[in-house]
Design goal:
- By secondary structure, this protein is of the alpha/beta class.
- The protein folds into 2 domains: 5-373, Purple Acid Phosphatase, chain A, domain 2, CATH 3.60.21.10; 380-605, 5'-nucleotidase,  domain 2, CATH 3.90.780.
- Helices cover 24% and strands 26% of the residues.
- It is built from 16 helices and 31 strands.
- The strands form 8 sheets. The chain has a 6-stranded mixed β-sheet, with helices on both faces.
- Strand 8 and strand 9 form a beta hairpin.
- Helix 2 runs parallel beside helix 4.
- The radius of gyration is 26 Å and the shape is globular.
- Its cofactor is a divalent metal cation.
């Protein structure tokens, strides 16, 4: 894949391309800050020249423009009363620009922009932006209107395939950055690595601000079907070490990294890749010359965090605003002109809460028609349900609503393999509780109800596994529970998510029965694993219906990524569920629900 227009922009920005609007008054001081210089005079007793500016940042917007939950069809709310969406962010951005002077601000993003809501899904799949005379993606329209200067690529940018991503890139008035997203054949950047913006100061000395974009190496695993053989994604530290010195040599006074990578130093893929998934702090620590990092991917709010670079001893400020437009990061920089160049004297960060402001009517009116179309789409009735089903207790009980997902997957795989070599093998299926607030109501079932069970764009595969591998898989999944001694009380609020394992990395498997003894240590929890009333033979063979994220190594579950693939589907599991409900007409848990697993302590059930 040749270098495109955005890549050329990144490489030529130092010569004047991508220059920001200039001039303006000196902005306010940075927040909790680091001191890297003392502001020495410049001869003849004159005071040093100073300049301050602010870089605003968002990340993990995941298709949120409005403060609206399309899965519940009402205004978004959570237990902390957070708000979401670019319309809220726009109001905050306008306030900061008025306070600082627009010429003294930049606005960037750290990725995961075009996946996550039914609004973004609709314009990728239902009324796709890639169609001839297709629409402009709502996220592009909103971000263009707000005036973003750059955005890093997130891993979810690749979920809908490269053509959708390229069309989105074409529709954006700002570059999509990915210094470590390389063409597989040439190993040259497939997207712009960076952009350099000029800030005109009152003293007549421009400040050149470089924004380097880095994305997540896990794309190679999670979206292998879309990027395999087309792009490769080396580690963030490696590529930052390559590009930051270049940016400094090109005259960058300030270097900011927009990284779709958390700061914890952990990875979810084990030894499948030689890179770190959440590498932002490592980049700050190992690569000299960086002033600040906008962190993304981890969905962990970090208002301000400092990391000391091992080589220079300078502190780098990191910030990660909360997902979906709940927060806006402000990096405040104070610079001093001394010895013929600008030096960052102070840098700090803070976050603003979007629930403190109203939505910007300029953004909501711009996309009101698109919003209404999607609301109408998600409210289409596709069937009925005999009873109401909920995911509220699904993290610790075998609930019918998770059985529904497994039933759909099992039937789909059985139909796909019918008449073939593996048709006689029993089909097992895995499913996770992606949301503890999803549900199917009694009575009419709509698209939003069914889609709410599966908010991710995962597709379905069939892999061949053995009984021994199944046991290992279940033991790994059972790490999710906090070890709880027999006899004492059990608090569900403290029972799950051991070691920070998210709900989507706990799998319930249908087609077999088993107990999870949470009084036992990790690795020794699966008891009574049986199929058709008999203990599972370690050598027995099973077909495993599994989503592509898990099959590609997501969550680092054992055996499945290396197991033989028997079949794969390109349609989202969400759509398969919707189609299944449409075909059946009526959903009755009596036809598919059963208690296949339960939590125990020394053989005694935890819950009745």
């Amino acid at each position: 894949m040749p270098l495109n227009r955005r890549t050329f922009l990144g490489r030529s920005a130092a010569a004047g391309a991508g220059v920001a609007v200039a001039g303006g008054a000196v902005a306010g001081s940075a927040g909790a800050a680091r001191a890297v210089g003392q502001g020495r005079g410049q001869g003849h007793g004159r005071p040093p020249r100073r300049y301050a500016f602010t870089v605003m940042g968002t990340t993990d917007l995941h298709g949120n423009v409005f403060n609206w939950d399309y899965f519940t069809d009402k205004e978004y709310d959570d237990s902390a009363h957070n708000d979401v969406g670019l319309a809220k962010i726009s109001t905050l951005v306008d306030r900061v620009r008025r306070e600082k002077g627009r010429r003294n601000t930049l606005l960037i993003d750290a990725g995961d922009t075009i996946q996550g809501t039914q609004l973004s899904y609709y314009y990728a799949k239902v009324d796709p932006i890639t169609a001839r005379r297709g629409p402009v993606h709502p996220m592009a329209r909103a971000m263009n209107a707000i005036g973003y200067d750059a955005a890093a690529l997130g891993n979810h940018e690749f979920n809908y395939g490269i053509p959708v991503l390229r069309k989105f890139e074409e529709q954006c008035d700002f570059p999509l950055l990915g210094a470590n997203a390389l063409d597989a054949k040439t190993l040259r950047p497939a997207f712009a690595p960076y952009v350099i913006k000029r800030m005109r100061t009152p003293c007549g000395r421009d400040v050149r601000v470089a924004v380097l974009g880095l994305t997540n190496p896990g794309i190679a695993i999670w979206d292998k079907a879309n990027v395999g053989g087309k792009m490769v994604f080396p580690g963030l530290e490696e590529q930052a070490a390559k590009w930051v010195p270049r940016l400094r040599s090109m005259g960058a006074d300030v270097v900011i990294v927009s990284a779709h990578s958390g700061s914890s130093g952990t990875s979810s893929w084990g030894d499948q890749l030689p890179y770190v998934e959440n590498a932002a702090a490592l980049v700050a620590e190992q690569v000299p010359g960086i002033d600040a990092i906008l962190v993304g991917h981890a969905h962990v709010e970090i208002a301000e965090h400092f990391v000391t670079n091992k080589e220079t001893g300078r502190r780098v400020v990191l910030s990660e605003p909360a997902k979906w437009g709940q927060r806006l990061t402000l990096f405040d920089f104070e610079l001093v002109w001394e010895r013929g160049s600008w030096t960052v004297e102070r840098a700090g960060s803070r976050v603003l809460n979007s629930n403190s402001v109203p939505e910007d009517p300029a953004v909501t009116s711009l996309l009101r028609r698109e919003h209404r179309k999607v609301v109408e789409y998600v409210n289409q009735v596709i069937g009925t349900s005999v009873v109401a089903m909920s995911t509220a207790d699904a993290p610790w009980r075998d609930e019918p609503i998770i059985d529904l997902i497994n039933q759909v997957q099992t039937e789909t795989v059985q139909a796909a393999l019918a008449g073939g070599e593996y048709a006689a093998l029993p089909v097992l299926s895995q499913a996770s509780c992606f949301s503890r607030t999803a549900g199917i109501p009694a009575g009419e079932v709509t698209i939003k109800d069914a889609a709410g069970l599966y908010p991710f764009e995962n597709t379905l595969e069939a892999r061949l596994i053995t009984g021994a591998q199944l046991k290992d898989y279940l033991e790994y999944s059972a790490r999710y529970y906090v070890r709880t001694a027999a006899g004492g009380p059990v608090e569900t609020a403290k029972l799950t998510n051991a070691d920070g394992i998210p709900d989507y990395n706990y799998d319930a498997v249908s087609g077999v029965t088993y107990e999870i003894d949470i009084a036992q240590p990790v690795g020794s929890r699966i008891v009574g694993l049986s199929f058709a009333g008999k203990a599972v033979d370690p050598a027995a063979r099973f077909v495993f219906a599994v989503n592509n994220y898990r099959a590609s190594g997501g969550g680092n579950f054992p055996h499945v990524p290396g197991a033989r693939q028997l079949w794969a589907n390109s349609d989202e599991i969400r759509n398969t569920i919707i189609g299944w409900v449409r075909e059946k007409g009526s959903v009755d848990p009596a036809a598919f629900a059963s208690v296949g697993w339960r939590l125990t302590r020394d053989g005694v059930p935890v819950f009745a």
